Amino acid sequence: MTSPSKSDLRPFFEPRSVAILGSLKKEGEAYTVIENLLRFGFTGRIYPVNPSYSEVLGLRAYPAVKDVNDPIDLAMVITPPATVPSLVEQCAHKGIKAVIVGTEGFAEVGEAGARLQQQLVDLAHRHGVRLVGPNTIGVVNTSNGLITNPYFVSYNRIIKGNIAYASQSGFVGAQGQPLEDRAYPISKMCDFGNKCDIDEADLLDYLLEDPETKAVSLHMEAIKNGRRFMAALRRLAAHKPVLIFKTARTAQGARASASHTGSLAGSASVYDAAFKQAGAIPVHTWQEYWELPRVFASQPLPRGNRLAIVTPTGGVGVVAADAAVEAGLAVAQLSPGTIDRLKSLHPNLSRNPVDLGPTMVLAEDPVFILEAATSAVLDDANVDCAAIALAAGIERWASAVLDMVSRLRQRLSKPVTIYVYGTQLSVSEEVVRQLGALGLPAYLELETAIKALGVALEYATIKAKLDPSPRSG
Amino acid sequence: MTSPSKSDLRPFFEPRSVAILGSLKKEGEAYTVIENLLRFGFTGRIYPVNPSYSEVLGLRAYPAVKDVNDPIDLAMVITPPATVPSLVEQCAHKGIKAVIVGTEGFAEVGEAGARLQQQLVDLAHRHGVRLVGPNTIGVVNTSNGLITNPYFVSYNRIIKGNIAYASQSGFVGAQGQPLEDRAYPISKMCDFGNKCDIDEADLLDYLLEDPETKAVSLHMEAIKNGRRFMAALRRLAAHKPVLIFKTARTAQGARASASHTGSLAGSASVYDAAFKQAGAIPVHTWQEYWELPRVFASQPLPRGNRLAIVTPTGGVGVVAADAAVEAGLAVAQLSPGTIDRLKSLHPNLSRNPVDLGPTMVLAEDPVFILEAATSAVLDDANVDCAAIALAAGIERWASAVLDMVSRLRQRLSKPVTIYVYGTQLSVSEEVVRQLGALGLPAYLELETAIKALGVALEYATIKAKLDPSPRSG
What we know:
The structure is a homodimer. The first copy, chain A, is of the alpha/beta class. Chain A has helices at residues 6-13, 29-39, 84-94, 111-127, 179-182, 200-208, 226-237, 251-261, 268-277, 286-291, 314-326, 336-345, 357-362, 366-379, 395-411, 425-437, 446-466, and strands spanning 17-22, 45-49, 55-56, 59-60, 74-78, 98-101, 130-132, 139-141, 146-147, 160-167, 186-191, 215-220, 242-246, 281-283, 306-311, 330-331, 354-355, 385-390, 416-420, 442-443. In chain A, strands 9-8-11-10-12-13-14 form a seven-stranded mixed sheet, with helices on both faces. In chain A, strand 12, helix 7 and strand 13 form a beta-alpha-beta unit. In chain A, helix 3 (84-94) runs parallel beside helix 4 (111-127). The radius of gyration of chain A is 25 Å and the shape is elongated. The mean pLDDT of chain A is 93. Chains A and B meet through helix 5, helix 8, helix 11, strand 16 and helix 13 of A and helix 5, helix 8, helix 11, strand 16 and helix 13 of B.
């Protein structure tokens, strides 16, 4: 097996041209890949390959990859299992170094499939071809519109951002997740599928040097080469936060994993300890996998654990304080100067959490109170970061609150997390998206919002320990 | 202090008539209470009380409660703090036995407020009046449209159901939560506020005999009379599941609590152990507080821990298996007959979790496959309950999947939990609402869906231990 090198993955994410091999009938797999590439605005050339078609979706189709005159960087093969090895061989002869095998029916279905998969691996290694898959929906790159998903996607847009999401399951793909509605700020995505060749270690090394990726969220069931993976993880974690959602944690989960990916998962407690030692941050639900990395998208890391909590309601302040302590944060002791500033808003505002409820109810301009109080605590030298609860999920408040936060954003030099709540779900969701567009991590669950800042603090600590070249800021 | 009795709380939830004392100017507190009562369709009589108005919102207003000729069951007082004692006294003279004091500015703001609150309590006890509050938004009863909320609510409908939600914070109220959009099936709601008189113990005793309440979710920061509360909890938990979200778990959370409710919260670990011993189920986030009780709304309790998992994607099966084990469930071993039924759908379907993905992709009618597989596992004598993952959050699938589940619903004799996912958030949310209307607990987070069945199993075990009169089924 060739050793990993960054250049090996570049054609998977940054191809100038892609060949798609598979069914070109309407809504066939290859047809759908091409349709998705067109809809998401892939900037490279697309070569449909199928001997029964001469044209599809306005593109010329080719009988075989050898019939394409131009060079091809990447092939997506999604044809019946038995046909895959010879098609990959044709790709190799054409000089294609990167092939995604979407097809299901390899190691995950039993012994015959496992033999076919091994045949594929041997062939690829012989020819110096790297493989993603089989049994995968492949990759996404929001910089060039690349998407190899062979399923119908109900939207046309994935938000370009700097978080890479990788997974061992196609469940994480654009066909299954509300990527647009949740506005996850995505740089790259990768579904490893059966990971017969390219695996997490390769991807981590690629992402280390990817300027468009600032944080990584990784779902994995099994690790095939633990030593190699841990080394890659340690390299990346020194520079970028890596969150790991390890599933198949239990014996029953591991058995379920073996039956759908053809890999054997290991004991989670062993992995979890190893992940932490390598500088990664374990997360424990899909929600955390998706939501927690937002905190890294465009904010500085906290310089300490002292949290200010600004809330329009006391009950939220209490839950936030509990969650903060459980996430490794501490409720900041406000300085006398800050308390004076708060008291000038209302005599009762003298402590953290800053419970603005009674003050806002009485105020002519409650949004002004919120802005003034938030500014006061963020200016406090005893405060490292802030959690702000916004009752913005209601039409009559949303735009005024967003305007305020937008002004506040200009002056933010400390990380914040925002909890959005309210009576109208669709408004809350839209506010979360708009705050995300301002570069602010916003959440519909209070505890997740707080945990995100805890994770940012955790990574600040890891980075201080691992990064050989610490920089200020 | 009078001992609790069910009859004391009846006028709070089942009043035939309500007097509202406070500002009747447009969008004033009392005005808004009345507007909410009208909008939510309160079935009793409403008496606005304010000496400066003769009419409001089409209702005759009265200078004082004594001027109302008819009997009044409940008063909501929301006037400046200093005026409250004399108004409560007027209520007492009018024969009103139940008063909600919405007003803020009592024990939660310091010593002067605490003295005023004590004055109020003494007066109420002298006159045999029971109080909810002060510093509260009061109550909701979906059976008679009662809502005493003094804040603007952006919707007109709370789904009538059989779960009672109680809290020590107004945060949980209709003005702050998407009760309609989330379609929580609600019987009663109560915000205890400073709970100077009526507290959780009173409510639990009332709910024990409330035929419209099948399960209770309780948020609390502090317990004022632990022995009395635990006794009430034990009485109720023997008959109905009680979930408790105890906040102010940490020293910092407890300090935050003291400053907004005027109560001192205690050590959470002590309470948590005591709750469990009394038969309650501790929950740990707002999301769990709201979502987990859904599992009790209209399903039988599981007779054992053996869970079948039906999923359109392998990765979800693995996470479900992990979460099941962590929630006290076990992945069921399917019987040979069930495996035969599954294999007739596709030869690869031979184990639990039942990963239908590859089969559904190839099927002419994927919804039929889902229905047949789900029926097969639910018919299995080795299966006590099922988790079903539905890729229904996409317009093109939603109605077909809902039709299928609706058919399946007719035959369900075992509890299920449903995880809904998909690419369109609004569609997923609508599917969750529609499944809820079919009496099925549905969730947007896989782990919460599984945890809900775990909580149902936990309660089945508690009930077997506590209920002096076990019934079959």
